[in-house]
Amino acid sequence: MEIVSTPLGRIVIGCAIEVHRAIGPGVLESMYEEAAAHELALKGLAFRRQVCLPITYKGLNLGLGYRVDFIVEEELVVELKTVERLLPVHDAQVLTYLRVLNLRQGLLINFNVPLLKKGIKSILNTRMTL
């Protein structure tokens, strides 16, 4: 799987690889999230965690429909999974986050794989507004 990445994306992927090496596959997503937050902090990165995204429809607030796992340096969405395999719905979820936040790139990271490189997917928002 080809990963389109930025310097920030490479740092975040390095953090995820470090977590996966230490913990391995097969634990709860919340444990990976906690460890990833620690790694991001150790790297000195600014991030927000479990960010609530309000969803609107034609001016009507539909409520807090989504929670983004991480927004790193206010430019990169990171969504963590522990699933058998990534599905198109996971891509769509990250793309929705990117569009609502008007950000360019997201990383979808599935920790439930033997080699983390096979569980990382880069998602790009090609419909950004300026």
| Rounded Rg | 14 Å
Examine the secondary-structure arrangement and name the CATH architecture.
3-Layer(aba) Sandwich
Helical segment count: 3
Structural class: alpha+beta
Strand tally: 5
How is the CATH topology named? Endonuclease, Chain A
Beta-strand percentage?
Answer: 25-35%
What is the ordering of alpha helices and beta strands? Answer: HHEEEHEE
- What CATH first level would be assigned? Alpha Beta
Percent helix, as a range, is 25-40%
Number of domains: 1
Inertia-based shape = globular
Unreliable runs, pLDDT <50, ≥5 residues? none
How is the topology of this model organized?
Elements: H1 7-23, H2 29-42, E1 47-57, E2 60-72, E3 76-81, H3 88-101, E4 105-110, E5 120-124
Parallel strand pairs: 3-4
Antiparallel strand pairs: 1-2, 2-3, 4-5
Helix pairs in contact: 1-2
Could you please describe the fold and organization of this structure?
By secondary structure, the chain is α+β, with helices and mostly antiparallel strands. It has a single domain (7-124), classed as Endonuclease, Chain A, CATH 3.40.960. Helix content is 35%, strand content 32%. It is built from 3 helices and 5 strands; from the N terminus they run ααβββαββ. The longest helix is centred in the first third of the chain and has 17 residues, at 7-23. It is globular.
Short description:
With 130 residues, this protein is an alpha+beta fold. It has a single domain (7-124), classed as Endonuclease, Chain A.
List keywords for this structure.
130 residues; alpha+beta; Endonuclease, Chain A; 5-stranded mixed β-sheet; globular
